[in-house]
């Protein structure tokens, strides 16, 4: 997790300052002065670090996300700016007593667990090179992230001092934080559209690395 945090922070530090001046520093004979129309992209992803179809407990471990992005890229520039909305959830699962709870008070009982999250981010991407229809790229950004955790124990009676934690029979916790993201991907041009696949790293807390999602996304830009 520490390595992922370092990669994300370093990519962000390099990408954002260069993106702001890229249009002015490109040679006029190469750079078109007319920006391309803004484009939308949509993608779906699964976090390969949190995926298991046969876990010890009932259910499956799967972390899924959906992304909607608006991007701008001028002429022949390799740089692009983007604003992105990400929403995601973990598949509902059951944690057995041998698994310590992540955020809730301890309970010697099985618990139904759910996690949801969202992010609104802005950043830049850089096209490394072009080979026929294929273009590998790097991307990075920063933004606000929301995460929520819900846990409902089975056959558990909390002590009076824990009643305020287990409202409606469950423990819930949510958080909004400033985070960073980075990734690499490959674009494939098909006519006026682009297919892409990318591996993203989203760290939800700059000061608390290790809390985030790391989806492998597949999508289309149109």
The CATH architecture would be: Beta Barrel
State the separation between the terminal residues, measured CA to CA: 34 Å
CATH class reads Mainly Beta
Arithmetic mean of pLDDT: 78
**Which fold name fills CATH's third level, the topology?**
Porin
Structural class: mainly beta
Low-confidence stretches: 1-32
- According to DSSP, the number of beta strands is 10
Q: What is the total number of structural domains?
A: 1
What Rg do the Cα atoms give? 21 Å
Helix content: 10-25%
Number of helices: 1
The gross shape turns out to be elongated
Approximately what portion of the residues adopt beta-strand conformation? over 45%
What does the main sheet amount to? 8 strands, antiparallel, barrel
Query: What string gives the helices and strands in order?
Result: HEEEEEEEEEE
Spatially, the strands of the biggest sheet line up as 1-2-3-5-6-7-8-10
């Amino acid at each position: 997790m520490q390595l992922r945090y370092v990669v994300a922070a370093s990519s962000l530090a390099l990408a954002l300052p260069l993106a702001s001046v890229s249009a002015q520093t490109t040679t006029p004979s190469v750079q078109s002065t007319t920006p391309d129309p803004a484009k939308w992209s949509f993608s779906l992803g699964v976090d390969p670090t949190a995926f298991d179809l046969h876990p010890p407990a009932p259910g499956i471990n799967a972390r899924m996300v959906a992304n909607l992005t608006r991007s701008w890229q001028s002429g022949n520039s390799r740089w692009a700016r983007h604003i992105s909305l990400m929403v995601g959830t973990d598949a509902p699962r059951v944690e057995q007593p041998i698994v310590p709870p992540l955020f809730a008070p301890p309970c010697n009982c099985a618990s139904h667990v759910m996690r949801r999250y969202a992010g609104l981010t802005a950043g830049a991407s850089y096209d490394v090179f072009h080979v026929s229809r294929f273009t590998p790229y790097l991307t990075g950004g920063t933004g606000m992230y929301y995460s929520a955790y819900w846990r409902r124990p089975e056959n558990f009676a909390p002590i009076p001092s824990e009643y305020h934690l287990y409202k409606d029979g469950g423990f819930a916790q949510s958080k909004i934080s400033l985070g960073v993201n980075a990734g690499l991907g490959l674009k494939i041009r098909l006519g006026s559209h682009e297919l892409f696949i990318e591996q993203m790293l989203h760290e939800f807390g700059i000061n608390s690395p290790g809390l985030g999602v790391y989806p492998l996304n597949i999508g289309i830009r149109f």
